[in-house]
Amino acid sequence: DQQVKQNSPSLSVQEGRISILNCDYTNSMFDYFLWYKKYPAEGPTFLISISSIKDKNEDGRFTVFLNKSAKHLSLHIVPSQPGDSAVYFCAASAPNTGNQFYFGTGTSLTVIP
Amino acid sequence: NAGVTQTPKFRVLKTGQSMTLLCAQDMNHEYMYWYRQDPGMGLRLIHYSVGEGTTAKGEVPDGYNVSRLKKQNFLLGLESAAPSQTSVYFCASSNRKHPEYFGPGTRLLVL
């Protein structure tokens, strides 16, 4: 049973515009959330995290928003660049579960020059 | 500074054979992880370690064993490989709660 879902397998955006990647979760106990980026034939790269005590976290062009009542988080990339073309994974964990993180299935972002 | 390295990069096994995947990190990280990634699925945690000499089960531990005898190395063993273990395996390390640095992956095909 997939506890973290990314319902959009792919997304295309024009260079310079905003990319919005979405992630939904079912476990209300999740309190820590992550986004990773993955290029083909490479391991994932950690991008940004957010704790459930916040609803927004920014790091440069990347901002993650958390809506706990909707069990939804999103990653905004502004402005989008061709180098952002990759697969993006969200992940979540609950307290007292050790280092167990549950990953979504990923969204493939293509930024069109 | 090589980061996280994985050996081998690719391997083909026959059903029933055994093998060990090696993960090495040179960042003095406490936490190390083994994940598998299958088509259409997210990364799933197999086993992890919170320090030298410790290991713990993740989401999908069956059919795998691990050891962390040295802080910089985390070994993943398959005692009797099955076709269901065909996957891409990623190792990761971190000094934070979450996996931060991933290796390039090992592609395993079990025939």
Explain what the structure shows.
The complex is a heterodimer of chains A (about 110) and B (about 110). Chain A is mainly β. In chain A, strand 7 and strand 8 form a beta hairpin. The termini of chain A are far apart. Chain B has no helices and eleven strands. In chain B, about 0% of the residues lie in helices and about 50% in strands. Chain B starts with a strand and ends with a strand. Chain B is globular, with a radius of gyration of 13 Å. Chain B is mostly beta strands and about 110 residues long. At the A-B interface, strand 5, strand 9 and strand 10 of A face strand 5 and strand 10 of B.
Give a quick set of tags describing it.
heterodimer; A: 113 residues; six-stranded mixed sheet; five-stranded antiparallel sheet; 0% helix; globular; B: 111 residues; mainly beta; seven-stranded mixed sheet
Q: Tell me, what's the shape of chain B? A: globular
- Helical proportion of chain B? under 10%
Largest sheet of chain B: 7 strands, mixed
Low-confidence stretches of chain A: none
Give the N-terminus to C-terminus distance of chain A in angstroms. Answer: 38 Å
Q: Which radius of gyration of chain B do the C-alpha atoms yield?
A: 13 Å
Strand content of chain A: over 45%
**What is the subunit organization of this protein?**
heterodimer
Average pLDDT of chain B, rounded to a whole number, is: 95
Give the termini distance of chain B in whole angstroms: 36 Å
| Number of DSSP E strands of chain A | 11
Mean pLDDT of chain A: 95
Q: How many helix segments of chain B?
A: 0
Task: Tell me the fraction of residues in β-strands of chain B, as a range.
Answer: over 45%
Tally of helical runs of chain A? 0
Sketch the major β-sheet of chain A.
Answer: 6 strands, mixed
Biggest interface, residues from each chain = A-B, 23 and 25 residues
